């Protein structure tokens, strides 16, 4: 993981090291004291958000994931500050090696590769956040509605979810992509969102079902609250951690799906993004012509961004479920008990 | 019995949805993609092929959508998937697909079995020596593996073992210069060409088996009957295999049944990266060439394979574990 901050040459990776270290220190100092008490169940709303904020600083995986994600966001928001070159301008000599002028060299078309990597961050992030939010939102609507309304509604919504769940997602994406002829960022977000909400919907439905007969919901019903109020104010806040996990998982899959689609040429080839870089590199036989960086660097960026989402996801899992924490600490406890 | 009938009903419904998607997608997409492609290839097609295609994509407008739909369902039921538009113009789609299937079954099928056996074994050992060296390196590696795009792993392996070291071939499934036949030079050549794609597939899929087996095994090891076996002083390997692993293997076993369904369409990008002429490679070729009849048939094939596998694994779970029968 430590070797991952590849995209930004000296600047960004240097700052990753700097801001990463204090995080690691806090982990060591805080973990024994602050780690265990946060493992209570059934917390809601702002309180659980505050706990998450504290957890990010006390869990090493969470710190690493957050630092990576913040870095990528900064690069995605201000690409022009880091790379002055126009990423699609074919103005340099072709296939140059790395140099001070072109940190990663130039492509076979004479574009600055570093600029491409930097500017390519934005579409990937847009897709990750767009699909993460969109799919989680649809899943929330459908999953909770199914559980709360029950009866025929539940039957129909659940059936739709199940059918979508078993139809192979990636081949379906390929088929839709082929009819679209060059999907831009917005289209990719829409298509991937529509295909990937079903798993989350199922999770949220069963969570909502398990809440159905809890006292606080009975109380709300007795008070005569409207369904919408109950769902938004009473049910959804109890699912915060599940929703965060769903967002992170969907974002991760969106990164992988969209990059794969772009790699096989189903994205809009004029958009500069990591997936389309890989597409052009493969089309120009980058390996055989000695331009390995053209394939290695965008791939590493995908891995690093994916790792950011995955690390955060694992961290939140560990925070919410103490049984999953690394064994080492458990062993220490059992050794102590034995003594 | 009731359970099996319900699963069969769900199978039929999903199949119908997949068929309908196949029918509706080209008709609903903006810009009428089929029309554009057929117009673009008019010269290369025989009049009969052209006629079949216009009918298949509903371009002769005097037929109503409903009539087209039933015609399409009838065609699929009788195994008539039409002719290829551009990949192998004029050839029957069924024929082309049948030629590709053995390559995918050979490469992906064997690798899937290998990944299952190895992964389950490593998972058993990892859980048995919990906290040991094997167990502590596995989870982080798995985290990393889940975020790497499969195709990129293939590309990196090509770079090192193919381009840099020249150890292994990485293009197509055998040397163009050889004539296919049942002789050792050809067979060994095929095996050599399969090593890199198979290895890529193996390292990308093995993690799931390891992790599922390990996690189930850990909870099984905490059961009372395992403690009882330990108390009786049984040898370690017997407790590990006969007591713990045997009871923990169910999720992996049903997962295996399901993964067999994904064999057909599960390695699309790996086949593409290695130019390995299986089903996935064919699908992407069809996509590249806008060969819609071929693409539709392949999508259907991949979906049906997955659905059948899910049906089998559902029924297998119900047979092997009575507790699941009443659920859902």
Question: Can you walk me through this structure?
Answer:
- The complex is a heterodimer of chains A (339) and B (328).
- Chain A is mostly helical and 339 residues long.
- In chain A, 72% of the residues lie in helices and 0% in strands.
- Chain A has 16 helices and no strands.
- Chain A has helices spanning 10-34, 45-58, 60-77, 79-82, 113-119, 121-149, 151-166, 169-180, 185-196, 198-211, 215-222, 227-235, 240-263, 274-283, 292-320, 327-338.
- In chain A, helix 6 runs parallel beside helix 9 (185-196) and helix 13 packs antiparallel against helix 15.
- Chain A is elongated and about 75 Å long.
- Chain B is mainly alpha-helical and 328 residues long.
- In chain B, 73% of the residues lie in helices and 0% in strands.
- Chain B is built from 14 helices and no strands.
- Chain B has helices spanning 2-28, 33-40, 47-56, 65-77, 93-128, 133-147, 150-164, 184-221, 224-231, 236-248, 250-262, 268-273, 279-288, 292-320.
- Chain B is globular.
- The mean pLDDT of chain B is 84.
- At the A-B interface, helix 7, helix 8, helix 13, helix 15 and helix 16 of A face helix 1, helix 6, helix 7, helix 12 and helix 13 of B.
């Amino acid at each position: 993981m430590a070797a991952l901050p590849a995209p930004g040459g000296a600047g960004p990776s240097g700052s990753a090291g700097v801001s990463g270290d204090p995080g690691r220190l806090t982990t060591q100092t805080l973990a024994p004291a602050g780690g265990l008490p946060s493992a209570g169940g059934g917390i809601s709303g702002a309180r659980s958000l505050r706990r998450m904020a504290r957890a990010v600083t006390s869990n090493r995986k969470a710190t690493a994931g957050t630092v990576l994600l913040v870095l990528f966001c900064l690069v995605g928001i201000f690409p022009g500050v880091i790379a002055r070159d126009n990423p699609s301008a074919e103005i340099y000599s072709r296939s140059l090696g790395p140099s001070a002028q072109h940190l990663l060299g130039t492509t076979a078309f004479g574009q600055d590769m570093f600029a491409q990597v930097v500017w390519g961050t934005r579409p990937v992030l847009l897709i990750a956040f767009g699909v993460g939010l969109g799919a989680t939102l649809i899943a929330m609507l459908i999953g909770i509605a199914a559980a709360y309304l029950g009866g025929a509604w539940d039957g129909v919504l659940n059936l739709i979810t199940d059918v979508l769940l078993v139809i192979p997602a990636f081949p379906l994406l390929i088929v839709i992509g082929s009819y679209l002829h060059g999907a831009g960022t917005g289209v990719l977000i829409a298509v991937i969102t529509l295909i990937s909400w079903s798993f989350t919907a199922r999770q949220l439905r069963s969570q909502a079902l398990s809440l159905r007969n809890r006292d606080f919901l009975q109380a709300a019903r007795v008070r005569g609250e409207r369904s919408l109020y109950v769902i938004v104010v009473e049910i959804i806040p109890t699912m915060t951690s599940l929703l965060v996990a769903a967002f992170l998982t969907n974002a991760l899959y969106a990164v992988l799906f969209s990059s794969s689609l772009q790699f096989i040429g189903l994205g809009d080839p004029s958009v500069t993004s990591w997936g389309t870089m890989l597409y052009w590199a493969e089309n120009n036989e980058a390996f055989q012509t000695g331009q390995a960086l053209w394939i290695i660097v965008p791939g590493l960026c995908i891995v690093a961004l994916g790792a950011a989402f995955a690390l955060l996801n694992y961290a939140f899992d560990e925070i919410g479920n103490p049984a999953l924490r690394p064994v080492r600490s458990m062993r220490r406890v059992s050794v102590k008990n034995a003594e | 019995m009731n359970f099996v009938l319900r699963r069969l009903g769900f199978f039929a419904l999903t199949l119908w949805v997949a068929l309908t998607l196949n029918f509706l997608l080209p008709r609903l997409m903006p810009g009428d993609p089929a029309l554009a492609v057929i117009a673009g290839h008019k010269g290369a097609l025989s009049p009969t092929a052209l006629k079949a295609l216009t009918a298949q994509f509903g371009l002769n407008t005097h037929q109503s959508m409903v009539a087209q739909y039933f015609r399409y369902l009838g065609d699929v039921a009788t195994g008539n998937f039409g002719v290829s538009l551009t990949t192998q113009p004029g050839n029957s789609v069924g024929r082309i697909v049948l030629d590709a299937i053995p390559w995918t079954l050979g490469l992906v099928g064997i690798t899937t079995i290998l990944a299952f056996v190895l992964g389950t074994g490593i998972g058993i050992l990892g859980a048995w020596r919990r906290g040991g060296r094997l167990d502590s390196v596995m989870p982080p590696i798995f985290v990393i593996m889940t975020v790497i795009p499969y195709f990129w792993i293939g590309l990196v392996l090509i770079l090192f073992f193919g381009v840099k070291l020249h150890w292994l071939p990485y293009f197509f499934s055998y040397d163009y210069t050889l004539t296919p036949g049942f002789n050792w030079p050809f067979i060994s050549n095929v095996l050599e060409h399969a090593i890199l794609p198979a290895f890529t597939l193996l390292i990308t899929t093995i993690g799931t088996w390891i992790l599922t087996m390990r996690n189930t095994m850990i909870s099984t090891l905490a059961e009372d009957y395992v403690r009882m076996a330990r108390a009786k002083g049984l040898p370690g390997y017997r407790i590990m295999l006969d007591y713990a692993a045997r009871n923990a293997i169910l999720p992996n076993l049903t997962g295996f049944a399901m993964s067999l369904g994904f064999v057909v369409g599960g390695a699309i990008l790996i086949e593409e990266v290695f130019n390995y002429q299986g089903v996935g490679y064919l699908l992407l070729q069809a996509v590249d060439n806008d060969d819609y009849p071929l693409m539709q048939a392949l999508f259907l094939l991949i979906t049906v394979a997955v659905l059948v596998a899910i049906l089998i694994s559902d029924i297998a779970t119900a047979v092997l574990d009575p507790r699941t029968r009443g659920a859902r």
